Amino acid sequence: xxxxxxxxxxxxxxxxxxxxxxxxxxxxxxxxxxxxxxxxxxxxxxxxxxxxxxxxxxxxxxxxxxxxxxxxxxxxxxxxxxxxxxxxxxxxxx
Length: 94
Fold this sequence. Notes:
By secondary structure, the protein is an alpha+beta fold. The protein has one domain (3-93). Helices cover 29% and strands 40% of the residues. The protein is globular and about 40 Å long. The mean pLDDT is 95.
């Protein structure tokens, strides 16, 4: 795991705002008043974490399935792969 990904995960776990290079974590307060970490890559929302469940922004992943996007998501524990040019999220093509 890269240093920046470790820092990203630490910010998500601590529910703190963080920015490093091309990756950032910001907090959103939902309707119930809970802090929800949102992860951004180059300003594009790639995922949110709620109750230790990672919710991937499939639109962003579908349109920018870069190595960096997939690496950040994998660091969060997401099963994302590419085979024959097709991106798979949890075994399902997107």
